[in-house]
Please model this.
Amino acid sequence: MAGKLNFSLVSPERELFNGLVDQVDAPGSEGDFGVLAGHAPFMTALKEGPVRVYNGGAVTTYDVRGGFADVTPEGLTILAEHAVEAI
Model:
């Protein structure tokens, strides 16, 4: 079984999510991407679109507009210009 990914999603208003998850899919400015635990480090700008958080069979979706994603050995941090949980 793969390890868990430490994921944080932050908007200017508040931190929307911080915890361990199985996978995160996000809308990169140069194409959508997915991140699992142990992913190679990189940084990219985000475009408008959904961020999908997979954890234990559940999927939570957030709508983001702009910002940056930073993948490090410690996990994934998304600093969004605007983000809300999708309805």
